[in-house]
C-alpha cells in the first residue's frame, strides 16, 4: 500500500469527459489498495477567463476579491471530480483550501502555504475515502480570506499536500509524458529522462520549462519529496498503479541526486527566446558605475539575467551588456534614460532578437571541459556568442535568435543525448 498524491492540470480536466478519464486514473490506484489524495487545477482556460473578468470589472481591484473570484475555477473541478468518482462507486469528498485547512500568507495573488493539517484526510483514508483537494488556494488565517498561490500554483499545492500526508510520491499528471532532454518539437531525437535531480529540474523550471512551477520543485527539494511527471493522456488502465521501487518505469521521477545511479554529464538542453539584450556603450569605467546602472533597474523591479562588462581600449570606458525579459525592454530603456544624470554619458543599443541556450547537468560539478565543448561546437557552426553565464550545474549562452534551433540540435547531439 502506498499513499499517493495525484495532481491533474488544466488540460487533464478540460471538460467532463476528461474528468471521467481522471477518475479512471484514480480508480486504478484505489483498486490497487493505494490511499489517494487528488489535487486539481481549474479546467483549462478558466483561470484566464476569471482573471479577465476581474480586470474588466476594474483594472484597480482589491487583491482579496481577485482571489475570491480566481479561486473558484478549482472549486468547480473538485466538486465535479468528486461527483464522477462517486458515480463510479468510489467514496470521495471534495475539499476547498479552508476545509482541509491549508493556511496561506496574506500576499493575495501570490501567497505562500504556511501550514496544512492533513489529519482529517488521513483519518478518512482508513475508510478508503478519496480526498479531492482544490489546488492553487489556501486560507489566510488572520482575516479568514481565500488566498491564491500565483499562476501554476496547483503544483505547489500538490507537493505541499504530499509532504503533509507523508505521501510516498507526488504524481503530477499533465499533457506530456515526462521531462525530456530538450523540446521534442525541435529535436525529434529528444529522450524522456527516467529520473532528474531536484537541482536540474529547478534550473529547467526557472529557464521557462512550464512542466512544473519553480516553487513546487523548491518545496519538494526541501522536503525530499519524490515528484513524478506523467501524462494523463495515456489510457488509465494501460498504466500500472503506484508500486514503490518501480516508480521510474513510466514518466520522469524528480528526486535526490543520490538516487540517480547512472547520470550523464549533461542531462538537458534548454532554450528561451523571450530575453532581450541591452548594451550601454562607452560608460565611464570607475567604481560605482555598475551600482548606478543596476540600482535603478532593481528599484523598478526589473530582473536582470546575464551581465557582461568589457573594457574598451582607452581604459577609461567600458561597454556593459545585460539581458532582461523582452516584455521589460521598454521599461528598461525608460529607466536607464531617467538615470542618465547619475550614470553619465552613454549610447544605448538593444535587441530582442536573441535566444538563451543552456546546458544543464549535475555531472558538470565533477567533469571539466563541458563549457569548452559547447563553445567549440557553436563556433564550428558559425554561431557567435554574445554573452555567457554559468552556475555550478549550468552554462548559458546568448546567441542570435535565428540560430536557436541549430544550436539546440547541435548541443543535444555532441553531449550524447540523441536517442538511437
Ligand atoms: N488554475 C491556476 C492557473 O491557471 C493554477 C494552476 O493551474 O496551477 O494558474
Ligand atoms: Mg501547470
UniProtKB/TrEMBL annotation:
InterPro entries: AceGlu_kinase-like_sf, ACT-like_dom_sf, ACT_Aspartokinase, ACT_dom, AKii-LysC-BS, Asp/Glu/Uridylate_kinase, Asp_kin_monofn, Asp_kinase. Its EC number is 2.7.2.4. GO terms for cellular component: cytosol. Pathway: Amino-acid biosynthesis; L-methionine biosynthesis via de novo pathway; L-homoserine from L-aspartate: step 1/3; Amino-acid biosynthesis; L-threonine biosynthesis; L-threonine from L-aspartate: step 1/5; Amino-acid biosynthesis; L-lysine biosynthesis via DAP pathway; (S)-tetrahydrodipicolinate from L-aspartate: step 1/4. Residues 278-359 form the ACT domain. Gene3D superfamilies: Acetylglutamate kinase-like, VC0802-like. This is Aspartokinase. The lineage of its organism: Bacteria, Pseudomonadati, Pseudomonadota, Alphaproteobacteria, Hyphomicrobiales.
Amino acid at each position: 500500500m502506498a499513499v499517493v498524491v495525484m495532481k491533474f492540470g488544466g488540460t487533464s480536466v478540460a471538460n467532463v469527459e476528461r474528468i471521467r478519464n481522471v477518475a479512471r486514473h484514480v480508480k486504478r490506484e484505489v483498486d490497487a489498495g493505494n490511499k489517494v489524495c487528488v489535487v486539481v487545477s481549474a479546467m483549462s482556460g478558466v483561470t484566464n477567463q476569471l482573471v479577465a473578468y476581474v480586470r474588466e470589472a476594474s483594472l484597480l481591484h482589491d487583491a482579496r476579491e481577485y482571489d475570491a473570484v480566481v479561486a473558484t475555477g478549482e472549486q468547480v473541478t473538485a466538486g465535479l471530480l468528486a461527483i464522477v468518482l462517486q458515480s463510479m462507486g468510489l467514496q470521495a469528498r471534495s475539499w476547498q483550501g479552508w476545509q482541509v485547512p491549508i493556511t496561506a500568507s496574506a500576499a493575495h495573488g501570490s501567497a505562500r502555504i504556511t501550514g496544512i493539517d492533513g489529519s482529517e484526510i488521513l483519518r478518512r483514508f482508513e475508510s478508503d475515502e478519496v480526498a479531492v483537494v482544490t489546488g492553487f488556494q489556501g486560507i489566510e488565517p488572520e482575516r479568514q480570506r481565500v488566498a491564491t498561490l500565483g499562476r501554476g500554483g496547483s503544483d505547489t499545492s500538490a507537493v505541499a499536500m504530499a509532504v503533509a500526508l507523508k505521501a510516498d510520491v507526488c504524481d503530477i499528471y499533465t499533457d506530456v509524458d515526462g521531462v525530456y532532454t530538450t523540446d521534442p518539437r525541435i529535436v525529434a531525437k529528444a529522450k524522456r529522462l527516467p529520473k532528474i535531480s531536484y537541482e536540474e529540474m529547478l534550473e529547467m523550471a526557472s529557464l521557462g520549462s512550464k512542466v512544473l512551477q519553480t516553487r513546487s520543485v523548491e518545496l519538494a527539494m526541501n522536503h525530499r519529496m519524490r515528484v513524478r511527471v506523467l501524462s494523463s493522456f495515456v489510457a488509465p488502465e494501460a498504466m500500472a498503479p503506484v508500486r514503490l521501487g518501480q516508480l521510474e518505469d513510466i514518466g520522469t521521477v524528480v528526486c535526490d541526486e543520490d538516487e540517480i545511479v547512472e547520470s550523464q554529464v549533461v542531462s538537458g538542453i534548454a532554450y528561451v527566446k523571450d530575453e532581450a539584450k541591452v548594451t550601454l556603450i562607452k560608460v565611464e569605467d570607475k567604481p560605482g558605475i555598475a551600482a548606478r546602472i543596476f540600482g535603478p533597474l532593481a528599484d523598478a523591479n526589473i530582473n536582470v539575467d546575464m551581465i557582461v562588462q568589457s573594457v574598451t581600449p582607452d581604459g577609461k570606458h567600458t561597454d556593459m551588456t545585460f539581458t532582461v525579459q523582452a516584455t521589460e525592454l521598454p521599461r528598461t530603456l525608460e529607466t536607464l534614460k531617467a538615470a542618465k544624470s547619475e550614470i553619465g554619458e552613454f549610447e544605448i543599443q538593444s535587441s530582442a532578437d536573441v535566444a538563451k541556450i543552456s546546458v544543464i547537468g549535475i555531472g558538470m560539478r565533477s567533469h571539466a571541459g563541458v563549457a569548452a565543448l559547447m563553445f567549440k561546437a557553436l563556433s564550428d557552426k558559425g554561431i557567435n556568442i554574445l554573452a555567457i553565464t554559468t552556475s555550478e550545474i549550468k552554462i548559458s549562452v546568448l546567441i542570435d535568435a535565428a540560430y536557436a534551433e541549430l544550436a539546440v540540435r547541435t548541443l543535444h547531439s555532441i553531449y550524447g543525448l540523441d536517442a538511437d
